[in-house]
């Protein structure tokens, strides 16, 4: 699916939350045949956060959502829709979105989870924005929240080094922007599902991945999808203020930035500290850029994700929120 609309729906606030526990590369290298040097060089990851045994995707998602809601100035009752992207939910059901909506007090909101692995946040964002565009909803909370540490095989050095836990959330509102271009591409190739899979049909509930195949797919799709969204939106890379890629591997991000001719200073990266937090990685990056004052109202964002499915998605929009209190 690809297209560009004129829209006034905008991202007005953002929040994030990560678990307290830091697991360094050295800690993993103390148990497995790997090293800090290998992990940094091949992935760009230095450490990741790991949830406590009793800390779940709904807990992290709630903290991120509460922060985003507080920063938006809206009340829980104003929220019409809660969409949570996750591939590591607390349970098959209820959805973490329903749990989060209840705990926030957003009792008039529709709530459901979105399953598109690491592309989940982009899928959820597009879905929420288009539901607002139709007039069905005025304000939506879009959350990406993961506790991947609970579905990682901690004895598999090829996967356990990559993933981390965390959550990010955004509030989207009708009429937040002057009418502006909202460009989207969402895609899926189910024939490649086995390349990145976790679930009961495999007999073990841990992430299994063909790393080289996913790497090749990611480098190609990131570049192509961004280019297609720019084309359909009638823009070029020079019109984009912030490129917000899914944080999976620094070599994937660098490759895409180079091929697209992006200024590295315009690419949001936090992989070194959090690893791959799947659906949470894009909103956590956004929150950091907002909190340190880089993200300004009217800045054009190009978010791009890829992951299990295999899926991919790009979304071009503008930041519609104010800066942190006290920032100019
Ligand atoms: N430490 C040391 N050696 C390792 C490690 C490790 N942690 N992991 C693998 N190796 C070894 C392999 O066993 C292999 O050894 P061999 O040559 O003796 O067989 C060697 O390193 C090279 O392995 P490759 O798989 O070719 O290594 P590569 O450079 O491709 O890096 C990696 C592997 C980091 C997994 C890379 O392929 C990658 O990042 N792929 C993309 C993964 C990804 O983005 N997944 C998430 C998608 S998002 C989602 O939806 C969840």
- Poorly predicted spans: none
The averaged pLDDT comes out at 96
And the CATH topology? Peroxisomal Thiolase, Chain A, domain 1
| Helix/strand class | alpha+beta
> Which sheet architecture does the biggest sheet show?
5 strands, mixed
For the record, give the distance between the C-alpha atoms at the N and C termini, rounded to a whole number.
Answer: 39 Å
Number of DSSP strand runs: 14
Dominant shape: globular
Q: Please identify which CATH superfamily we are dealing with.
A: Thiolase/Chalcone synthase
Characterize the quaternary organization of these chains.
single chain
Number of helices: 9
Largest sheet, spatial ordering of strands:
1-9-14-13-12
Give every kind of bound small molecule, once each: acetyl coenzyme *A
Return the domain count.
Answer: 1
CATH architecture: 3-Layer(aba) Sandwich
Q: Estimate the helix proportion, in percent.
A: 25-40%
CATH class: Alpha Beta
Describe the protein in words.
The protein has 328 residues and is an alpha+beta fold. It has a single domain (1-320), classed as Thiolase/Chalcone synthase (Peroxisomal Thiolase, Chain A, domain 1), CATH 3.40.47.10. It is 31% helix and 27% strand. It contains 9 helices and 14 strands. It has helices at residues 25-29, 36-43, 57-72, 96-104, 120-133, 211-233, 250-260, 271-274, 281-291; strands spanning 2-7, 10-17, 21-24, 47-50, 81-85, 110-114, 139-147, 165-173, 180-188, 196-199, 204-209, 242-245, 300-307, 311-318. A 5-stranded mixed beta sheet has the order 1-9-14-13-12, sandwiched between helices. A 5-stranded mixed beta sheet has the order 2-8-7-5-6, with helices on both faces. A two-stranded antiparallel sheet has the order 3-4. Helix 3 packs across helix 4 (96-104) and helix 6 (211-233) packs parallel to helix 7 (250-260). The longest helix has 23 residues, at 211-233. The radius of gyration is 18 Å and the shape is globular. The termini are far apart. The relative contact order is 0.21. The structure holds acetyl coenzyme *A. Acetyl coenzyme *A (ACO) is lined by residues 34, 38-39, 42-43, 117-118, 157-158, 161, 196, 209, 211-212, 214-215, 218, 248-249, 276, 278, 307-308.
């Amino acid at each position: 699916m690809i297209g560009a609309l004129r829209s006034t729906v905008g991202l007005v606030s953002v929040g994030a939350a990560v678990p307290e526990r830091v697991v360094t590369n050295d800690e993993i290298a103390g148990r497995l045949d790997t090293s800090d040097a290998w992990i940094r060089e091949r992935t760009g990851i230095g450490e990741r956060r790991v949830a406590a045994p009793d800390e779940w995707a709904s807990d992290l998602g709630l903290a991120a959502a509460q922060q985003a809601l507080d920063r938006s100035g809206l009340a829980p009752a104003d929220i019409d829709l809660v969409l949570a992207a996750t591939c590591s939910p607390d349970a098959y059901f209820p959805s973490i979105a329903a749990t989060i909506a209840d705990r926030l007090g957003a009792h008039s909101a529709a709530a459901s989870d979105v399953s598109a692995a690491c592309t989940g946040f982009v899928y959820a964002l597009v879905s929420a924005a288009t539901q607002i565009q139709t007039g069905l909803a005025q304000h939506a909370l879009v959350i990406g929240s993961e506790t991947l540490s609970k579905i990682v095989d901690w004895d598999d050095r090829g996967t356990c080094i990559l993933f981390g836990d965390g959550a990010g959330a955004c509030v989207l509102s009708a009429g937040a922007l002057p009418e502006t271009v909202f460009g989207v591409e969402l895609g899926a190739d189910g024939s490649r599902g086995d390349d990145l899979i976790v679930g009961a049909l495999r007999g073990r509930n841990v992430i299994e991945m063909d790393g080289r195949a996913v790497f090749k797919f990611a480098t190609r799709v990131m570049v192509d999808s961004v280019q297609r969204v720019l084309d359909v939106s009638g823009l070029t890379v020079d019109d984009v203020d912030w490129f917000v890629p899914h944080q999976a591997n620094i070599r994937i991000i660098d490759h895409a930035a180079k091929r697209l001719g992006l200024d590295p200073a315009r690419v949001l990266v936090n992989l070194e500290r959090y690893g791959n937090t799947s659906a949470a990685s894009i909103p956590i990056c956004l929150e950091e850029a907002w909190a340190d004052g880089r993200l300004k109202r009217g800045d054009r964002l190009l978010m791009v994700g890829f992951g299990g499915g295999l899926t991919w998605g790009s979304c071009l929009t503008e930041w519609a929120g104010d800066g942190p209190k006290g920032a100019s």
